Amino acid sequence: MEVAVLYHDDFKKHSPYPYDHPENPARLDMALESLNASRLINSGNIALEEPPKGDLSIYTKVHSPSYLRYVLRTAESGLEWLDGDTYVSIGTVSALERLAGASIAAVKMVGRGIAPFILGRPPGHHAGIKGRALGAPTGGFCIVNTAALVARDLSRLGRVVVLDFDVHHGNGTQEIFYDDPSVFHVDLHQDPTTIYPGTGFPEDTGRGRADGTKINIIVPPHSGSDIYMHAANLMRSIIDVVRPDYIVVSAGFDAYTHDNHFSSINATSHFYHEVGRIVREASISGVAAVLEGGYGVGLEKGLPAFVAGLAGLDNPIQDKFLESGITQWEKYLSGLKRLARALKESRTSISDVVLMAIEDKNLLA
Ligand SMILES: [Zn+2]
Q: What is the pTM for the complete model shown?
């Protein structure tokens, strides 16, 4: 499977200048540099491509028209804060139009057997129907939810799994699809009692006909590579049971050890490479990925490992496998037990897969 990295300089026009902010244009420079340093771009089956501009109105498939009008109106007057975390700037509209074009290009590429990775910004998985989602304190740097848009388009063609491994819960994505049984949302994130946005509990499994299609896997602070590899295996087993036609990856790299100051997980390149590989090898019709978070070393080491895995290449990153302590394992397994119980109540056989994953770990111990 070929991988197309969709990038355009317009993605850098959304800018917090003159303020310092972790979600800034330099993130994309970091990501591109790391892909080049790992010799991944324009080598073998990975190409760098510029997406066209698109019409912002396509985002009404996942956001309310009044929210989109509010964003556009606010961005017109230059740098403005939608909330304490989330800004818009004069260049935001150009960046969003390019994301809209990238999402259309991505869906077409999936149809041609190419795996697109939208290397754009601002990120999106915290953006719900009207912006801030599920009572979150802020929009968490996110304006429009591109992964959700791609997932909605692909859900017209078949069953979709959104796989979100950003360290934060994709509360926007959960809100958008909470009643939609055609989109499974599997979200691996730091225990919401310890981190923004404070949502994404194992008990939140979807509503009505969609009950049992939303799967929140939580990990305690200071979880390491071993817990993350276990979670990757669990995600693979869930994909095997769900048998989706398409997978959309909300690819955030902020669980990478020491990526930033607002999360405290010690994932390493092993995990990101493995997820890329799992998604590539799942017997499905197509894959698309969208950049979410990642603010430092996660972009340098997690991102190229993921892209390499997706392209069927060896992990180009050499970093240390970090072990979790026994307390982290106990908390992680108790989260999985809660998940298995909640899914059993939803009458989905995914609960058996979760129970098996817990059993596997106990056999290893
Ligand atoms: Zn994040």
A: 0.97
